[in-house]
């Protein structure tokens, strides 16, 4: 059965754009990539319900990285839909300690305290992932013909999901928000991010689905980054 991809676009606070969640339906239950911020929970739930996703239908939540605009609803949805959360161990501490600078080289005590308030990330939104996924992990057991790609740079535990048909869900490594497709300007480690981009260029990727912005063809990025 053909994989169906639904983009769920949720507003960020203070009119700072939007963040994308992706609801995948391979025909054997849903997989949700990223969950948005907890301050947009009602809209996310309405989108899931509208897609026909009910309790027991959501086989897995995959988090591309630990930032709160991507993880804010994960704990709630795990309880609501009786599902499991998968993410890379490198970013798990962000969710467990509510600290987006947990594993980043440029920590800031003030922002560590303020950012959870900004995104509405409460103590009840903290969680430990059920599944730790690593580079090249196969997702077939969840009904999804796809593999995990380790693509650090934005954060140490950033991952992408590459489907058998060439769809890449890249989190915040790449963006097309308000610009030509490019590396995200917000990087913890720009050198490592550039290495992750080179890794992607060697893979059979057709369409890129970023955490922010519209989907784009990989060749658009090649032209921009050459």
Quick recap:
With about 230 residues, the protein is of the alpha/beta class.
Helical residue percent? 25-40%
Count of runs of 4 or more consecutive helical residues:
7
CATH class call? Alpha Beta
The Cα radius of gyration reads 16 Å
Low-confidence stretches: none
In the CATH hierarchy, the third-tier topology is known as Metallo-beta-lactamase, Chain A
| Whole-number count of domains | 1
Order of helices and strands: EEEHEHHEHHEEEEEEHEEH
Question: How would you state the average pLDDT, rounded?
Answer: 92
Query: Which overall shape is indicated by the principal axes computed on the Cα atoms?
Result: globular
CATH homologous superfamily grouping: Ribonuclease Z/Hydroxyacylglutathione hydrolase-like
The number of strands is 13
Q: Identify the CATH architecture.
A: 4-Layer Sandwich
Q: What distance lies between the first and last C-alpha atoms, to the nearest angstrom?
A: 36 Å
Class based on secondary structure composition and strand pairing: alpha/beta
